[in-house]
Write a structure and sequence with these properties.
Blueprint: H1 2-60, H2 82-104, H3 107-118
Length: 127
Amino acid sequence: MRGAICLSWLVIAVTATPVAAQSSGEVGGIAAAMIGLPLFLGLLIAVILYLASLYKTFAACAPANRSLAPGLVWLNLIPLFSTIWIFVTVVSVASSLRREHAERGNCQRFRARVRVRAGIRDPGFAD
């Protein structure tokens, strides 16, 4: 009788173990979702705010000075396409701003500010 009781406890322990492991796995999955979802949403909001900033920068430039239409900035939301398109977007912003400042005639002052903020001194330019 004693052997039967020990065997029954062994059967119960063996069959109960996967259930306990499964429930702890579910808890781990829920915890990962509770951490991962806010991180993903936070990153998505940051990317959208960055792209909105680029859009407003393009829209502030005169149409003749734009090297890219402002609406094309939003193509960076396409997952694999954005790995290449972000470089095109940033280079286009730089060239558009360069043309805009050259047209307005304050290109030297703009370059001086960029150099000062970047920590670069230009010996030929008087501040």
